[in-house]
Design a protein that fits this description.
Radius of gyration: 53 Å
Number of helices: 3
Strand order of the largest sheet: 2-1-3
Shape: rod-shaped
Order of helices and strands: HEEEHH
Largest sheet: 3 strands, antiparallel
Helix content: 40-55%
Strand content: 5-15%
Length: 152
């Protein structure tokens, strides 16, 4: 305490703290290998107030820009999420379509390879049904009157 007494007296006599450079940092306390720097602030009080106001304005604008950036990043993440969802939905629909097309081809191939049974529509239909015979047309012909009838 006694050794540091003169240091505090000289610092308080000047009215400003001393500044030391210790490597790449600056501090108000001496360090090993540190160099004392003379730092004189020659600005007036009006200059200091102007600088403080500009600093405050820059901080406010920085905060605004950060909020804008965060909102834009959130929107971008949401767009990416929606796009990925839509891509998954499209891929699933494409797979479903390909699967149904493959099943339809398999059914068609199976039907083509099986022998077909003949149906009554295509074989012997004219024998049992005179209306379906060629020229039958479904109309009945008028009969000619017989010779034994009395005609006058």
């Amino acid at each position: 305490m006694i050794a540091s007494g003169p240091f505090w007296i000289s610092a308080s006599a000047q009215g400003r703290p001393e500044t030391y450079r210790c490597g790449n940092t600056y501090t108000d306390r001496p360090c090993d290998g540190g160099k004392q720097l003379k730092v004189d602030d020659l600005r007036t009080e009006a200059d200091r107030r102007t600088a403080d106001a500009a600093t405050h304005k820059a901080e406010v604008r920085g905060d605004q820009l950060e909020r804008i950036r965060l909102a834009q990043e959130k929107d971008a993440r949401e767009r990416d999420r929606r796009s990925a969802h839509e891509a998954r939905q499209a891929a699933m629909a494409e797979r479903r379509l390909a699967s149904s097309e493959q099943q339809a081809r398999a059914r068609a191939q199976k039907l083509a390879s099986e022998p077909h049974k003949s149906s009554t529509r295509f074989s012997g239909a004219s024998e049992g049904n005179p209306a379906s015979a060629p020229g039958g047309g479904g109309k009945k012909k008028k009969r000619k009157p017989s010779s034994g009838s009395s005609a006058g």
